[in-house]
Amino acid sequence: MSSKPFLKWAGGKAKLVPFICENFPAAGRPRKRLIEPFAGSAAVSLALEFDAYLLNDANPDLIGLFQTLKQEGQAFVGYAHSFFTPENNSESRFYELRERFNGSRDTVERSALFVYLNRHAFNGLCRYNSKGAFNVPFGRYVAPYFPEAEMLGFVAKSDRIELLCGDFQVALNQAQADDIVYCDPPYVPLSETASFTAYAKGGFDLDDQNRLAQAAQQTSEQSQGVLISNHDTEFTRSIYRDARLKTVMVQRNIAAKGSSRQRVGELLAIYGK
Question: Which structural domain range is residue 208 located in?
């Protein structure tokens, strides 16, 4: 069963799923499990049918939310919905709830507030400061959408989803002969001011990009193959030189001003036969 992601996410792949799917390596072979070492909104896993899924991300709030939704189901959906009120859609209340989120140690409450922040914060960005506090400002939306149907779509699939939280290598180490791996890492910035990689403490630098490319080559030899998405730059073409490369133009929608939203090159690096 196909469903849409319930989170707004910078660089989300919902619109690119057909292009990604047609370029999966090992075309025509049965695919039992899809591994996403950089889960994000899990758009690809939610859109495609596999027997099983392994979702990993370095962001503990994201994986904590997925885990809570998987365990609590409908009851959690109702609780998260309770924060979507006209009273809570004001600047002062937003910052109160953001502070509450940053101070919360209750997994269920923190997960519900993560959904609230995702829909009420500016452009649905997920960003933390150097102390690990969520710091995206108020988005000023008239009526933020509560993604009930999409959350229930995740619940319906959740018995086939295994969750991990850590470095991408943790997920790659799990790859087996019948697995397909799709990597959607924080992208190499197109300019020094264009990076949105601080969605988890520690970020993701160029050394990490290199490390991923090398690991993908190794993992493709023990699985059905690995596909990586990234910006089309000289740097990414260099580190993915051992892969087959394909490009597509995409619209980038995460920007402060509409005039700066533009079509950019997306590079797909395909490791495997």
Answer: 14-59+159-271
